[in-house]
Amino acid sequence: MKLTCTQMDILISFYLEDELSTALKRQVEEHLKACPVCHAKYDIIETMLEDLKCSLEINEPLPANIEDFKPRTSSEQYKIFKTNLSAYIDNELTNSENIKIKKFAINNKAARKELEDSYNIKKLMSDSFKKAKESAKCDFTRSTLRKLELDEEASLNFHPAIRFLIAFTISILVLGTIVLVSLSV
Question: Does residue 84 lie in a domain region?
Fold first, then answer.
């Protein structure tokens, strides 16, 4: 069984965390060798994880000017940056908050890298969603509703007009039979 790209979107994180069975791990590796798109996604995610690990262990040299020192290593500013990063990417902050995030990212190499990685993740997710949406050839909502309509028809829950016609036809047949039976007696 070959894996699809949609399955790979789910399995890549488990593969990176070494949480797959040997057989599934082998299939993921085979797909990564054969599919340049999934391999590119894998490389981006792997790089982001490595950068994230490195950013937790930042050992940048101290700047010569004390004023340059404050914006780069202020843990309070970094906490504000981390807290507001998602809202910044989604344009949910006020102008003054946006400016603070931009200034901090400009002055801090790790923050700048984290911002780039976040944008890459957002783009990857958007592209994956678009690809999944385009590859879905069936409108599942409509097909489900149609199936429900068919089930309803099968259980004799017809439209009221159809039920009236059926009742009218049965009534005519019954009356006709009664007339014929009474004439033959």
Answer: yes
